[in-house]
Amino acid sequence: MNQALLVILGDGCGAVLREHFMLGVAGLPGGFPMPIFVANLMACFFIGVISAPTIEGSVIGPGTKLFLATGMMGGLSTFSSFIWGTHQMLAIPAEWSTAVLYLVGSMILGFMLARLGLRVGEGLLRSRLITARRS
C-alpha cells in the first residue's frame, strides 16, 4: 500500500480519537486544557511503544509503524492545540502559572512517557522473541 495513504488513514483515525478526548475528558478549573494534555501524553507513550527498535520477529512492520506512529499518533497529538491552549492561558495574567505548569508538565511528562513506551515496547518484543524461540 502507498506509504502516504497509510499515513493519511492513520491520521484520520487519530484525529477522530482526539475529538473523542475533546468531548469526553473534562477540562480543569483555571483554563487547564486537560483533553489536549491527555491526548498528547497518550500519544507520547504509544509512539514510544510502537517505535521500539525492531528486533527480529517483531510483529510491527514498516507499514504498520507508518500507520500507527506517524499517522495515528500524529493525528491524536496536536502541537498547534498545545500551543494555542498555552497562548489562551497566557492572555489572562491570573492563569500564567497554569500555562507554565501545562508547558513544563507536557514536555517533561511527554518525554518520560515516550521513554517508558520505548521500554514497554522493547519488553514486549523481547517477551515475544522468548516465546517464539520456545515454540
Structure explained in plain terms:
By secondary structure, this protein is an all-alpha fold. It has one domain. 78% of the residues lie in helices and 0% in strands. The protein is built from 5 helices and no strands. Helix 2 packs antiparallel against helix 3 (62-76) and helix 4 (79-90) packs antiparallel against helix 5. The two termini are 32 Å apart.
Question: Would you summarize the structure shown here?
Answer:
This protein has about 140 residues and is an all-alpha fold.
Structural key phrases:
globular
User: How many strands, what sense, and barrel or not for the largest sheet?
Assistant: none
- Euclidean distance between termini CA atoms: 32 Å
β content, as a range? under 5%
Poorly predicted regions = none
Which class do the helix and strand fractions yield? mainly alpha
Number of helices: 5
* Cα-based radius of gyration, to the nearest Å: 17 Å
Instruction: Give the number of domains.
Output: 1
DSSP helix fraction: over 70%
Overall pLDDT: 86
Choose one word for the global shape.
Answer: globular
Order of SSEs, N→C? HHHHH
- Tell me the total number of β-strands: 0
Q: How do the strands and helices of this protein lay out in sequence?
A:
Layout lengths: L2 H22 L9 H17 L11 H15 L2 H12 L5 H39 L1
